[in-house]
Amino acid sequence: KVKIGVLAMQGAFVDHEKALQMLDCETMQIRTVEQLNQVQGLIIPGGESTTIGKLMDQFGLIDAIQERSSQGMPIWGTCAGMILLAKEIEASDQLRLGLMDIKVRRNAFGRQVDSFEVPLDMKEIGDEPFPAVFIRAPYISEKNDQVKVLATHEEKTVAVRQGHLLAAAFHPELTDDSRMHQYFLDMVQRSL
Ligand code: GLN
């Protein structure tokens, strides 16, 4: 059985575990390099990206995750997790993994729309729109041609894939539609 780690520094990691447990998959909260080395895939949850980045650094997880990524381990970042996967973060020098060829803008949808839910077209996971919950969400302002766009909202790129790396600006763990978790689980299973 596949075991997927959920980075448990801060933020929405418990909901990701619950979503994965609905599928045929074991989960593990990741706080140490030893724990990281026991999983075949990793989710980096939403939360506060500067806080998560600092804690990852303190626990030696930035180097360790970069290393696992270079060996092809699938990683999925949601919201703050997407920010941490980006090579470039607009107007910020905060700590990050810098694994994906994307530039992100934090809190990008403006104060009036701090949080909202929209049906999102994402053909890669099926014909039915995906209920996407955005909370102080970032979006992707630039990318290179290695990066495939999976979904857009108001012409902003909000979900992408680059090989073994997946990123979403929203919170799929907060709705009971499990298709994105299933999609990531398939990525992990195919990587073994
Ligand atoms: N705005 C947060 C950040 O920049 C991300 C918000 C979220 O993960 N829901 O870290």
Automatic annotation (TrEMBL):
InterPro entries: Class_I_gatase-like, PdxT/SNO, PdxT/SNO_CS
Record GO terms (molecular function): glutaminase activity; pyridoxal 5'-phosphate synthase (glutamine hydrolysing) activity
PROSITE patterns per the UniProt record, alphabetical: GATASE_TYPE_1, PDXT_SNO_1, PDXT_SNO_2
Pathway as given in its UniProt record: Cofactor biosynthesis; pyridoxal 5'-phosphate biosynthesis
One GO BP: pyridoxal phosphate biosynthetic process
Keyword Calcium: no
The keyword Repressor is assigned to this record: no
Recorded GO CC terms: cytosol; glutaminase complex
Binding site for L-glutamine: 47-49, 106, 135-136
Enzyme nomenclature, EC number: 4.3.3.6, 3.5.1.2
Reactions catalysed: L-glutamine + H2O = L-glutamate + NH4(+); aldehydo-D-ribose 5-phosphate + D-glyceraldehyde 3-phosphate + L-glutamine = pyridoxal 5'-phosphate + L-glutamate + phosphate + 3 H2O + H(+)
Active site: 79, 171, 173
Keyword annotations: Glutamine amidotransferase, Hydrolase, Lyase, Pyridoxal phosphate
CDD domains reported for this sequence: GATase1_PB
Membrane-spanning intervals of the chain: none
Task of the protein: Catalyzes the hydrolysis of glutamine to glutamate and ammonia as part of the biosynthesis of pyridoxal 5'-phosphate. The resulting ammonia molecule is channeled to the active site of PdxS.
Family: Belongs to the glutaminase PdxT/SNO family.
PANTHER family according to UniProt: PYRIDOXAL 5'-PHOSPHATE SYNTHASE SUBUNIT SNO (PTHR31559), PYRIDOXAL 5'-PHOSPHATE SYNTHASE SUBUNIT SNO1-RELATED (PTHR31559:SF0)
Subunit structure and binding partners: In the presence of PdxS, forms a dodecamer of heterodimers. Only shows activity in the heterodimer.
Protein name: Pyridoxal 5'-phosphate synthase subunit PdxT
Organism encoding this protein: Heliorestis acidaminivorans
Organism taxonomic ancestry: Bacteria, Bacillati, Bacillota, Clostridia, Eubacteriales
